[in-house]
Amino acid sequence: MRETPRSxxxxxxxxxxxxxxxxxxALAHTTGASGSGSPHRSDGRPPxxxxxxxxxxxxxxxxxxxxxxGPPTVHSPSAPRAPFLTPLALLTPLALIALLALCTxxxxxxxxxxxxxxxxxxxxxxxxLPSPVAEFLADLGNTAVAVPVLAVxxxxxxxxxxxxxxxxxxxxxxxxxxxxxxxxxxxxxFKALIDRPGPPGPLADETGFFPSGHAATAAVAYGAAAxxxxxxxxxxxxxxLLVAFAVLNLAVAAGxxxxxxxxxxxxxxxxxxxxxxxxxxxxxxxxxxxxRGSGPGPGKPWSPRAAPSDPG
Length: 312
What we know:
InterPro entries: PAP2/HPO (IPR000326), PAP2/HPO_sf (IPR036938)
Radius of gyration: 36 Å
Number of helices: 10
Helix content: 40-55%
Order of helices and strands: HHHHHHHHHH
Domain Phosphatidic acid phosphatase type 2/haloperoxidase: 171-282
Organism: Streptomyces endocoffeicus
Structural class: mainly alpha
Protein name: Phosphatase PAP2 family protein
Region (Disordered): 1-79, 290-312
């Protein structure tokens, strides 16, 4: 191979020079065609793969496309969780306790609220609601009717949660069962303490009508069943379920007062007690699914549709 002759004036006194890297060769993958540090092709053409178009972010990690800036966030197991009780969450039980205390005080002290309550009870008892219909509505608060409904809901919710591998799947059904068992433990002492006489009717000579055991049984049984079934239904059926629960309890109360089994405030006091029990069931259910991992997140009810199809 012929070599290009160098000038005689400089050939003898030239110093050896180390080879310098040329742009567009191996270092073009790190410095780019212009040496500006951009990870594009060495020939200046646009990249052919999405990987070549990615840029490093300010943290030095792999860049991401908008709208997710920065490196991926890693949740630490020691990260603080949402509090179980907040001031806003405590408003409901405090309001129920205040209403229950007001009703109890007025009934025990023969206050003006008791006078209006008895007037309203007599007006409802003389209403045009047919007695057979009122009897049927009142019977919906019997233990033999309400408890089997709750038992079916307990079994179905437990089976669905266990199949979906929900965390602590047994806790919400257990809380609902304990709430149902607590109804007589709360109602019987109130009846003995207040010892209110019954309205005119088949039980007029008896006492111990405040609060209503039938109204409390219906509210807790059907309410706990609604809370257990609520996350298992499709979204368009959840609101009708809660509306049906409210209408059903109003119907039971109307049947009890129409048949002369209770005064109106007897049922209101039962709703206050039942509301405290159902609030506890709801909070326990949310607590059972507040763990991290496969659960749906803090404060959210479990739904089998949110469970992964492959646990592994």
